[in-house]
User: Fold this.
Amino acid sequence: MSNPTPIIPRKSFIELIEEMNLDDFATIHFKCLKYVSGNISMTELFYLVMTVRLFKPAMIMEFGTYNGRSTLNMAINTEGTITTVDLPRSKKLRTSYPLAREKDLDESGYVGLKHKLWQGQDKEITSRIVQVWQDTAKLKFERYMNKYGFIFIDASHTKDNCKNDSYNAHKMKTRHGIIYWHDYNGWPGVTEALNEYYEEEGRPEKMYWFNDTSLVGRFF
Assistant:
């Protein structure tokens, strides 16, 4: 399946930070840097951590935990709490929207991993991470509405799932919250979903595809 043509404008993350007059003299920390298939790249991890460090969201929501590499690295760079949602392995074929299961794009192996990289880390870190085993389309949003300053969407990569997660994130973000997505121009479903979202939202000025990554960020 060919990838749709990306339409979201490119942006240098460093230039964005400069334009926002943010103090980038920040100390950041990393753990468990080893990359395995399904993880975000090192550049993407750096941008993710820098966003958390510079904007200091009190509460973070992550759609799609996988092995917890991004979860752990966000946690050690914030004093806030992180809620991370992953699909239980037993439910992976009974979701609201089916997972991608095409040749070379089968994501079923990325869900339901019981071992997370934050396990065994310092209790000060682990106490601020809440794992939720649930289909992101079935979350009880009354509990999560208008709470999260930063939301990272990297769950199922089908168009329907990504669109649904995107608009659910709107319900959960704070007024001036930030939403990031992963795998733009990587998974066809994500690219198509975000192209449609970008058009439906009136081509928002503060929505960018970061250079040298598959990350898209929207700042409200």
